[in-house]
Amino acid sequence: MPGTLAQSKRICYSEPCFMQNVIVGQNLVQNPHIKALMEEALKAGASKLPKVGDVITGTVANKESLTLYADFGALGVGIVYGREFREASDIIRKMNIGDAISAKVVELENDRGFIELSLKDAGYTLAWDDLIKKKDTGEVIEVEIKEANKGGLMAEINNIPAFMPVSQLATKHYPRVDGGDKSKILMELQKFAGQKFKVKIIDVNQTDGKLIVSEKEAQDDDLKKILSVYKVGDVVEGEVSGVVNFGVFVKFTASAEAGEGINELEGLVHISELDWQLIENPADTFKVGDKVKAKIISLDSDKVSLSIKALKADPWKDVDEKFKKGDVIQGAVVKLNPFGAFVRVAGDIQGLCHISEFGTDEQMRKTIETGKTYGFYVQSVSSKEHRMALGFGKPKQQAKEISTAAEAAEEKSVEKEAA
């Protein structure tokens, strides 16, 4: 009978009770085996004994209607019943007598002499303990994406919700959205629902119910291994995989030297590295699928920075010889900014005519227009810094000399008429 089982295994948790007789049925007997176990437990110290909230491990002793008994040796017999039994019925149904069982202590000794247990709470606690272990060991876990929100993706590990922020996505999955439009980012993220990602746990806190995962961290070791075979200056061939307002992403096949693992890499060509000439909108020049060659200009952790213009001849190479300070030139206005006007003076060579040449932004826009050609003069030029400063119209000294000469000619004309 369950009562006999409980009575034959019952242990009082207060120290004075530890050396008491064990009750078998209604008779008092000295049980040397149990007594020895008690003495051993006392020698090990009271800290060895479980407390409410601890998860303890034993074996299934018996199952009957809405009740499960678990044998914990010298500690006694535990019981799962009532609401705790119903909530864990799916787990209990699969258990057989003799199976190992882990349960959370709800009460050290109830009025029937049993240790009251919770299987559901134990499972929850063990699940979090397992998550902490996975984080500490850096285990790579495969998860299925359940849903997306504006901040990232949701998955589950050990039946516990896990969140992956957008910033922790691998480069190939990072949403390419111009201007960071949140609604468009969400649409891109929703495409991943149902897909499986490999991730690592980067933050876990049971108290706050927080579980944060990262795809970037999961591929970090493989990525570092692959990137180790590349160096700055290498040229890669690939295709444009994304176009955004700050540049284009280029996907290329990983070198065979890197071995198995990640098959493709992706790098960013910043808008300033697309061409020697000014590009305002990358989409005007590139589209997804375009085949391109690019030079690796930076390898930083998991980021590959590329340059397309680095494979083109530098139009600034001999600019110091072609243009001298004070030269009067013709140039087409390419773009107007609050700080001045960009002017194309020859091929891909562009100079800046500062706003101070016009006084105000309003006056500049009244004076010149994009697409039209005007006269400028070179104030300074540097091939090394790829920079040319322009003045509007003619050099101030030259303009002053012309004005002085014109005034002198006019004075002579007036004197001649007077004579």
Structure description:
With 419 residues, the protein is an alpha+beta fold. 25% of the residues lie in helices and 36% in strands. The chain has 11 helices and 23 strands. The strands form 6 sheets. The chain has a 5-stranded mixed barrel. A hairpin with a 4-residue loop joins strand 12 (196-205) and strand 13. The longest helix has 23 residues, at 396-418. The protein is elongated. Residues 1-30 and 398-406 have low confidence and may be disordered.
Give unreliable regions as ranges.
Answer: 1-30, 398-406
The main β sheet shows up as:
5 strands, mixed, barrel
- Percent in helix: 25-40%
Strand content: 35-45%
Shape verdict = elongated
What's a quick, concise take on this entry?
With about 425 residues, this protein is of the alpha+beta class. About 25% of the residues lie in helices and about 35% in strands.
